[in-house]
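The following record pairs a protein chain with its ligand, 6-O-phosphono-beta-D-fructofuranose.
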Amino acid sequence: MKRIGVLTGGGDCPGLNPTIRAVVRKAIHDNYDVVGIKNGWKGLIDQDTIHLDLNSISGILVKGGTILGTSRTNPFKDPKNVEKVKAHFKALKLYCLIAIGGEDTLGVANKLCKIGVPVVGIPKTIDNDLNATDFTFGFDTAVNIAMEAIDRLHTTAESHHRVMVVEVMGRHAGWIATYAGIAGGADMILIPEQPTALEDIVAVLKKRRQRGKTFSIVVAAEGAMLKDYSMVLKTEKKDAFGHVVLGGIGQLLAEKIEEATGYETRVTVLGHIQRGGSPTAFDRVLSTRFGIKAIELVNEKQFGKMVCLDGNQIKSVPLTKAVGKLKTVDMDFFNMARIFFG
Ligand code: F6P
């Protein structure tokens, strides 16, 4: 019986457990043995694994997070770790690996494929910024959480005649901000793709007051920037993939808005609430379809590929096409949201 290893890497997101469940169910159905590798690539460096059977995945469809654990480990930071990954792949008698992750995890998968480790990738991230797939799972859940927060902020903003700034996740791409902003009726949306001038925000807020609207909602992605200001970081420290920790644009915006308009302003930072909890039906179905397709690719020996959503069809693309370039917000789509600014 051939053995498949499965791991989840990078930031967690709703939909990881349904993916693991689908991978294990389909793999067992197709006569494979499945080993879970704990905490992303770290588990392959440390040979930290768990056997996965029907019992281990029972009841996980509705659960957020990942039963395998995750980490932001990059084995390519140290050549010794790459050797360990290769050696442990052999020691565990693995036929291939299924890597569930975003740009960083799948970037490692792509490099490993090039040195002879057979991997199939499955895209995940709440940021929805992975190239070569229309959507990643986790995104829909995050958008719904952010939309609900905006709905709730609307009633308190209206009662107090305040400006409410909502900071959502989105490091390099403003997909969550744009979708949640449109769905929640935001009066202004700021995304990393396009720095916004403070004067433009102030003009929108003033225009609303002039037409009798005494409250406003401003949605900002954490990676958004104000023109003439640099990106707001929480710390300068970088992770294994060179990413800084973002956060603070909401606070900066609230201060600048209040200063420039005199309108009382509050800020809400949604943070990791967007990554927690039960996945939406859309994310459960998408992640299940991805998991099934990944095993089909294994059956066909299509290694070095990533499953993807193309329209409403589940297809596959070479990993090289998926990594290296992020999928940022389409500006035509963003311009549609602008109609509602002010
Ligand atoms: O990549 C997904 C993401 O949620 C980003 O939107 C965010 O900047 C980052 O992860 C936060 O990472 P951490 O969990 O390490 O704080």
